[in-house]
Amino acid sequence: MKTTLEKVRIVEYHEGLAKGIAKMWNESRENWGGDSTVTTEQDVIEKEANSSNLHLYLAMVGDEVVGYCGLSQYREDEGAMYIPLLNVHPDYHGLKIGKQLVLKALEKTIELKWPRLDLFTWPGNTKAVPLYKKCGFFWEDRDDTTHLMNFIPSVLQVDWLKPFFEKHDWYSASQRIIEVKPDGIKDKDHTYYEYKWEAGDEFVRVQFERTGRGIRLIETQELLVEMKLPDFKLLEKEEHLVSYRVVNKTTTPVDVSIWGMSTEIVNHSFIGKETVEGEWTGEYPAVLTLPDREPSPWKTHPVVSANIEVDGKLFPLKMGVYPKQAGKLHLRTVNKHWRQNQKAVLHLDIESQLEDDAHWTVKLPHSHVVKWSQAEINAEIKGKSRISVPLHAELLKNGFYSEEVKIEVVKKDGESFEFSSRLALEFPGLGARFGGESEYHWKAFTGPYFVEIEKRNHFVKIGSVLSKQSPTILFTPRLGKPFSEEFSKKEASSVEYIETPEAFVVKTTLESEAFPSVVLNTYFKLYGSGIVDIKHEVVNKSKETKEQLYLIQPLPIEFKGMAIPQKEGVVIGDEVMMPFMDYIRDKEISERWLFTSGANGETKGLAWPEGAIGRKNDWHFAIEYKVDPVQSQGEVCLGPIQVGINTAPSWKEWRSLVLGDDMKRLEECPLYSLEPSDGNLVSAAGDHAGYSFRSMLTPYLDGTLELKNEDESMDKTVTKKDETTDVNVELHHREAGLKRIKGKFHSQGQRASFETISMVTGEKEIIEIVEKADGWTVDNGVLSFKAAEGYYPGIYSLMYKNKEFLHHQYPAPGPKAWWNPWGGGIRYTFMNVSPYSMLKEPTSVNPVTKQDSNGNSWRGLAVTTVLKEHESMKGITLRQYALTLPEVPVLAFYCEIEQESGRTFTGESVDLEVFFKPGETLTSSFVKLPSDGKFDTYYAGIEEFVIGDSPFIQAGSDERKEQAMLIHPDSAKMTEVYINQEVLVAASSEEWTAASGESVKVKPTMMVLGEEDLSGAYKQLRKISFN
């Protein structure tokens, strides 16, 4: 693409540019790993409306958006602006558009008088590193992140240096050597970042110390001023000499005034005045106090600093420092879960921060949590070394051990001193509820479940010590709008632990500056079931009502094994590929819950209250509240958000827990599927039926679909330019029957195979239903089944290709195995009504026609039994339905329970039993089940087997090729197969509840017959339901 730098304009964002930004992102995916995310104009408008950006700069070539650069306050540290996202359209690389955008952000940072501009990238982004470094950034040498800092704004604010930069452009005059590696000049444990500029006879050299984020040296052609610390890590309560050096390179004496700056952590008070003709060096003491916690690499460290005035021009010098004690002590354990009176070995890890070898004595105080076998520890520790001391202990009670311990240290030269350190360790156990504070976190426990709150940024982890899955994470909550990142840099002003009869609560308080007089209280309530309720309380301490407040709670969810409710049903993450947040259709989330599950069976549930919105927030999920007006001195409570750790085994139970049991049933939708376009599995012979390959994710499909049906095959190709998530084709079904349709979809990055079925009805659509001497017979042209009022309430015979599939003893029921009387066949029955009692009740058989949810007519028999004699069940009517389609080897079984008993039934069971005998002999009959084990086929008539839960089974015989596949409904609470020397029975159980006057209908059990294995499409048959 041909363009010139002169054509590029840098403008600020407005909504009119949202469509252009969306186009840029959709065409820039190769810059970001090649993901297939589709961004829309509305996505951009919503994202930028909720963004924490103070400014958003866009590069324009004509009317096209070709570059993007955000600018916000840095959320991890004080005193810095931040570029959260930078992108240049791949067609416009090499035109220095990125440079223009970065310099624009830097220019704004300087204008706003911020001292620093930061950004993050990834280690492999080597193409961008030279650009960043030329623009003034330094690459920090860290293992945990790729962080860059730009101190140009600080340099340009130094009065002494302003004359140079008023004459010379800092970018053009830079003499810095650019290398694609982390920056820094090492001086013991300090790291310095150095700028250097030259223009004619003038030059400027400035060094910044990494952890203090401040200037430690300035040099020009006339003068050098610098400070230096003896080391980076310095012992508390001792004097350390800080050296200052001034070199006057001119022949004119220079007046220098210097005075130290003290803080709560650093005492560095002094005043000095000198007239420097050549070189002057001065040393002044600094004494450090240990801060409440160790300095973090994410934040500016404590600094030793002084103000220097040279010929009336003032500037500060400062260097970061790491105050330390003589040693660091940590109490640790390899155990995750504890029981009272348990004896175990704990580990006291001691790290000496002394230069000298010494004898250490640690005195462990008495505790109500742990009993020590030895209360005093003595050890010889070499200088700058670590040891781990095993401690034998007995747990007196589950709880939080937190004690101040005294340490005596005697050096080799006889010098001795004492210091104290706090040891903290949690001992969670069955039913124990407690909380406590460690060096970096506040923690609360109920049994194995925990909430862990990071002090520096209010990140929260919710999990179980017994779980192998990663905890659920909550990022820092944000008040808005615009949403502020302020709480990511603040520690909670107070933390409370509250015990209630049903749960344990930890409360944190965060005080806002972005929204003055607003306080955010957060309550984490841990239940013993693994549920954690999170409530937010917005408090107004001002004299005026606070209106138009919002609160957002970000949660970075991993969408593995996901279940997401949408208008089509529950989208199930049945692929090994784990979708990105941008792949989720968040606007189509239809209910207020999400669910994820791991391969090991562990689960996580998330729910939010009515009125809150679950939505995409940048690359993660978030829950947003619009806060009602908060009256003066009042508060508004929000929530709860609920997190469940292994609380529910599946999404269905989690949904019931969140929404209640009376919600409409939702069907499962796979991420990718091949299905009839209209969702109807039934078509007619001679018709052209439409089929769709569909994706439930947002990326457009890009590949070729191939379909095969009988002797017909066809393919269709789509590209991203088609902007579609489904591919539609038509197939001609010439003959009636059950058709297996196989498909493949292949793109450059993926290959998939799948199948669906079609129940193609005969052209005549005639099903013969007649009453004969042996009862009622239904014949659909390819199969027939029978029921008789005088035999046993159910379907006793099923013929396919003139051979019986069911086991029965028509015309007279009698004893068989554990049953008496036994009728065999297919029947629904109540657990507490014996076969003998069932035969006492009147049964009728009638022809029936039923419509399924797609309007297809199914015909068959209704077997109705009215319970009049049974003591506990009288007043119940059981209607059993057996239905089929013309010339299709398929049957549907379901039942209705009409309840007119004058009482309420709760948690009752209705069971379906199917007695198979596909062969002439029982010993030739077998059942086959999907299995992760070695055996998947079991023969009847030989020995006893009880075979557990399975979504479907296949019954067949060595004597014939045809098999019957029985597909249990997904609502079944139990499925099994029982085999012994006399029977082969497949069974399922459904739970039902009904008040008097109500009716209950259970989901259908489907059966298909034939030679082909149709197990790959069993989930689609499960979707059939009847009106």
TrEMBL record:
Pfam families: Acetyltransf_1 (PF00583). The keyword Zinc-finger does not apply. Transmembrane segments: none annotated. One of its GO terms (molecular function) is acyltransferase activity, transferring groups other than amino-acyl groups. SUPFAM superfamilies: Acyl-CoA N-acyltransferases (Nat) (SSF55729). Residues 8-159 form the N-acetyltransferase domain. Keywords: Acyltransferase, Ribonucleoprotein, Ribosomal protein, Transferase. GO terms for cellular component: ribosome. CDD domains: NAT_SF (cd04301). PANTHER family: AMINOALKYLPHOSPHONATE N-ACETYLTRANSFERASE-RELATED-RELATED. This is Ribosomal protein S18 acetylase RimI. It comes from [Bacillus] enclensis.
